[in-house]
Amino acid sequence: MNHDDSLILPLAVFVIAAAVIAVLGVRLSNRADRFADRTGLGEAVIGAVILGGMTSLPGTVAAATFALDGRAAFAISAALGGIAVQTAFLAIADAVYWRANLEHAAASLANLLFGALLVALLAIVLMGMVTPDLAVGHVHPASILLIVAYVGGLRWVHEACKEPMWHPRLTGETREDVPDEHSRREPLGPLALDMFLTGAAVAVAGWAIAWSADRTAAITELGDSLLGGTMVAISTSLPELVTTVAAVRQGALTLAVGGILGGNTFDTLFVTLADAAYLKGPILADVTARETQLVAMSILMTSVLLLGLMRRQRTGPGNIGAETVLLVVLYAIVVLLLGA
Questions:
Q1: Within the chain, what is the greatest distance between any pair of CA atoms?
Q2: Integer distance in angstroms from the first to the last C-alpha of the chain?
């Protein structure tokens, strides 16, 4: 540790920013739920595209900043570490929801589709890591393919939800995404403005969190992969945690799960952003084995979540499903691998 530097300022910034996120995150979740009802787009789509994108902005800033500094391992681990930790956050949301297993109650076609899209995007990143010699200019072709796959995937999800060929079986614990009649009559303009301003404030607070984490990392002088994949990833993912728990407490279960899956899907684009900002060449050529392990574990964790959404175990100890416990165990393994 560099004794010339003090942790007081970054820790103070962290506490203040976290408090702002805790307050505004609840408000943002409420506005997103009402916006989904008002537009008729549904909680899963709004959670995945809008809520997930807004809460991912701190990670975007962190990944780009570290890439510009030439810190490839830090940039990629911070970007992809958020996917692992946000998936693990569903264990906390599951613990908050006492009525039934969250994966049972929140099963929906859109969430399954976004989970499948996430696995595909992570597979593209993994392929890029094992083909480091490929380049288009100074970026890897996988970075370009990620954008194409993301946009195309969103279109597929929209088309599949518009004319669904599959529905989850309804049970007494299933929480359907039924629009609130009052929200459907709410003026759209003021609601949208309120939501986006709140989201912008959360993003600024998230950027402050990322700054404090980066400063703490510099002072403590720990490894880039460990700090990026854990401390920075967890710090920049606080908006997702707050909005997810808030959505569960409001009964918007599809929004909660959709926000995590959609945010994770959006987070894969951090690789493209980091690759563009990393001027030494394709950033995927300079990552370590730890980042490759992180991607593989993220694919595994997402697959476990998808299996939980399809298996739909109704209850477990404390109404927490077996897949929730497994997600916590897998994330613990992620931390151990990054610290090895």
A1: 62
A2: 20
Residue 3 forms part of a structural domain? no
Q: 301, 51 in Cβ contact below 8 A?
A: no
237 lies in which domain range?
A: 8-177+184-339
In a domain, 228, yes or no: yes
Cross-strand bridge partners of residue 136? 139
Residue 173, pLDDT > 80, answer: no
Q: Can you give the CATH number for the domain in which 223 is found?
A: 1.20.1420.30
Distance from C-alpha of 158 to C-alpha of 55, rounded to nearest angstrom: 21
Are 78 and 288 a contacting pair, CB within 8 Å?
no
* C-beta separation of 13 from 210 below 8 A: no
For 256-311, what is each residue's pLDDT tens digit?
787 788 888 988 988 998 999 898 889 998 888 888 998 999 999 999 988 888 87
Distance CA 334, CA 208 (A): 25
Give CA–CA dist 131/120, Å, rounded.
Answer: 17
Structure-token pair, residue 52: 């997930």
Residue 196 and residue 17: Cα distance in Å, rounded?
18
At 282, which amino acid appears?
A: P
Overall number of domains in the chain: 1
Residue 158: inside a domain = yes
Query: How confident is the model over 206-228, as pLDDT tens digits?
Result: 778 777 777 776 777 655 566 66
Residue with tokens 């593209």: 124
DSSP 3-state percent helix, strand, coil across the chain (nearest 5): 75, 0, 20
* Calpha distance 49→110 (Å, rounded): 11
Q: In terms of DSSP H, where are the helices of 4-140? A: 8-39, 43-46, 52-55, 57-68, 72-96, 102-105, 109-129
- Tokens describing residue 124: 């593209």
Residue 307 belongs to a domain: yes
- Residue 68 buriedness (CB in 10 A; 0-12 / 13-18 / 19+): middle
